[in-house]
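Friendly challenge for the regulars: who can give me the structure tokens for this chain first? No prize, just bragging rights.
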Amino acid sequence: MDEKELVYEAVLAAIRSGEPGCLLTLIEVRGSTPREVGTKMLLRADGSTVGTIGGGPMEAAALLEARQALTEGTSRSSYYSLEGTSSTDLGVCGGDARVFIEVLRPKPTLLIAGAGHVGQPMALFGQQLGFRVVVADDRAEFANAERFPGADQLIVGPYEELRRRVEPGPRTYIVIATRGHEFDELVLHEFVDCPAAYIGMIGSKRKVRTVFDSLLARGVSQASLARVYAPIGLRTGGQTPAEIALSILAEIIAVQHGGTGEPMCRKDNPAASAE
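First reply, four minutes later:
Bragging rights claimed.
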């Protein structure tokens, strides 16, 4: 496998795993440069790289800017000399190159703990909304490709081992909807302090109180539990599994985009605002 194939394989693997990174591509060169137009390299979030756009100070300067681009989440292009200085245009002397730095932002991950009746429509809706859908259950007869044909990943195993098999990040949204409060508690205990953007648990107020009291007794802090959306979902009045799944995902979308879930007509309806 040549270098270009290695870079493409690494990019594909990063996308599939949900790992962010930057793809650097030489899009213009002038004078004597070690690599030709189209040469690519990948910068992973952990700082490791695959491929090279020429090495030396020029590559080091491009990688420095790529790290900044990754932090800010914005793609960009810049010119660099072989000495590593950047500019807005190619220099009159040889050995300059323009590098396009493309930020690879993976899909947000929707982790559904519980492959029951609500989990099925939630996985379907999540896929349609652009999430990388991961479904986990301790029963192989529930968490399988036949029931979840669109899931990106299916995890079968004890809930107490789920945290070891999933690495949640700031673009992970976790929905806990297992078949019983004891399993919900197991999952919540494992993930309550993780850096996920959203953690929600299905259930009545009474069930939520029971689980929270148990976790407090086990040493989980009140502050940690305060970030959990429970009971989960917006108050739509829906009762079917699909309606419940929709209310949960509506809440997730609101969190994702900084919304409130409030009906738009309450603020934008001229008749309502005139009252």
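Residues 88-93 have pLDDT under 50 and may be disordered. Residues 56-72 form the longest helix (17 residues). Your move, everyone else.
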